[in-house]
């Protein structure tokens, strides 16, 4: 998807609004036969839009214990010790390490911290636009959950987990 360039946000630092932002996760379950969709709550974060977009930065923190799917048992399992271990690691964090123009739009490279393990991730910026009260960003990535520190459950959930962030910032 090509990055929306209708109105690039004005340079400045914007605070992510957890009440108006969503993080959706999609993976396959049961040997890849059944899709699973879940959400995780955003705790907070910032986006700094630079005069030169390549110098822009972002950070975000998610609540590991807020994982919600259509199955309460799955929710308990994913937030439990074998997967996210939300009691010992209550947050999932992202911090950017670089922003660059790709073939079909902007990419935001960064470090994802899950269960105390850092892994590289690249977000594709699908939308970056000014709004009447701030900015709207939509970004997506595919994360290898094993590289991100969650090695259990091979037959339960596939390795690639797709993430889609729909973020509002003031």
TrEMBL record:
Cross-referenced InterPro entries: Lipid/polyisoprenoid-bd_YceI (IPR007372), TTHA0802/YceI-like_sf (IPR036761)
Every Lipid/polyisoprenoid-binding YceI-like domain range: 13-170
Record-linked Gene3D superfamilies: Lipid/polyisoprenoid-binding, YceI-like
Source organism superkingdom: Bacteria
Family named by the database record: Belongs to the UPF0312 family.
Protein name: YceI family protein
